[in-house]
Amino acid sequence: KDEEIVAEIMGRRFFPDVIAYKAWEGFHFAGHEIRITEATDCYGAVVWPSALVLCYFLETNSKQCNLVDKNVIEIGAGTGLVSIVASLLGAFVTATDLPELLGNLQHNVLQNTKQKCRHQPCVKELSWGIDLEKNFPRSSCHFDYIMAADVVYHHPFLDELLLTFDHLCKDDTVILWAMKFRLENENQFVDRFQTLFDLEMISNFPSLNIALYKAMRKGRMKA
Question: Which residues fall in a coiled-coil region (predicted)?
Answer without folding.
Answer: none
